[in-house]
Amino acid sequence: MSKATVSAPANIAFIKYWGARDLARALPLNSSISMTLDSCVTLCTVETLGHEGQDEVWLAEPDGGFGSLDPEFDRRVREQLDRLRTWAGRSEAVRVATRNTFPTAGGLASSASGFAALTLATAGAFGKKASDKELSLLARRSGSGSACRSIFGGFVEWTAPKGDGTAGDDDSYARPLADADHWELRDVIAVVEIGPKTVSSLEGHRRALTSPYHAKRQELLPERLDKVRRAIRQRDLAALGPVLEEEAVDLHLIAMSSHPPVFYWSPGTIAVLRAVRELRQEGLAAWATMDAGANVHVLCDPDSEDEVAERLEDLPAVGFVIRDGVGDGPDRETEHLF
């Protein structure tokens, strides 16, 4: 029997993964770029049981107890465990416990951190060595494509496969663009909803291609990707910010115009976006982005963080804020969840 525990971070996408070439394999239509977070992480412990049979999968509660995962997430975890067993050439069952430090299923990339942590902890429990590229591929194949970016710290690009995608599975993985210490960006997350989304990201991906605006965004992405790479390289928030907001609006425009439409925004989302515009009018460097959910990430420089956080905390629609920033990536932990 062997046990490993890993903490893996969520990430916030600057250029989004929205709409897949092959959703079953999480092969994207376009490359995406993200910033790995520091405080929003998933802890996952995996222990081999020394015999074949049913895996044990648990949600670790903050009070030290254990509960069951959401049935759909539980199914996806078990499928990923089967993939990892096949990859590692192992057959024994495992015991898994997982816990997030931030709200789950609310559009804050808990699936990305969760499947990155599961992949890394399972590889550790099996004693299987792998390259970062291989681990990124394995995390992507979980079905949560953004998990491939959470394998790395700092600023990360996940490349789309070239050509028509028929033979691109091994070509689509993440790689670092810059380390965490390259640029000290802060991320103030305004949490306006903590419950699970009514429409999952996977279902949103399925519907994305039905939007009449999906093809237009694909035309705009090469230039946006170049702008984001350059802004990261030059540490230029004034250049990065407008692209962040364009991409966020486009994701939700496509969601709202899909068939059937998906409405992730809440009144709190709009209140936060208005507050961010007001902060910029007052001279603060603050820019908003959202993934597939109502909660809003506000990117800013360290000198602006306190004022941004205080303004957002004062909004009636904001339950609380999470202060985060660019992180170094996954860690092997010495304290286990069980």
SSE layout:
Layout: E1 3-15, E2 20-22, E3 27-28, E4 32-48, E5 56-60, E6 66-67, H1 71-88, E7 94-100, H2 110-125, H3 132-140, E8 155-158, E9 174-178, E10 186-191, H4 201-208, H5 214-234, H6 237-256, H7 267-281, E11 286-289, E12 296-300, H8 305-313, E13 320-325, E14 331-333
Parallel strand pairs: 5-7
Antiparallel strand pairs: 1-4, 1-14, 2-3, 4-7, 4-8, 5-6, 8-9, 10-12, 10-13, 11-12
The overall pLDDT, averaged over residues, is 95
Structural class: alpha+beta
SS strand fraction: 15-25%
- State the helicity in percent bands: 25-40%
Oligomer: single chain
- What kind of sheet is the major sheet? 8 strands, mixed
Characterize the structure shown.
There is one protein chain. With 338 residues, the protein is of the alpha+beta class. 34% of the residues lie in helices and 24% in strands. The protein has helices spanning 71-88, 110-125, 132-140, 201-208, 214-234, 237-256, 267-281, 305-313, and strands at 3-15, 20-22, 27-28, 32-48, 56-60, 66-67, 94-100, 155-158, 174-178, 186-191, 286-289, 296-300, 320-325, 331-333. The strands form 3 sheets. Strands 1, 4, 5, 6, 7, 8, 9 and 14 form an 8-stranded mixed beta sheet that branches. It has a 4-stranded antiparallel beta sheet with strand order 11-12-10-13. Strands 2-3 form a two-stranded antiparallel sheet. Helix 2 (110-125) packs across helix 3 (132-140) and helix 5 (214-234) runs antiparallel to helix 6. The longest helix has 21 residues, at 214-234. The radius of gyration is 19 Å and the shape is globular.
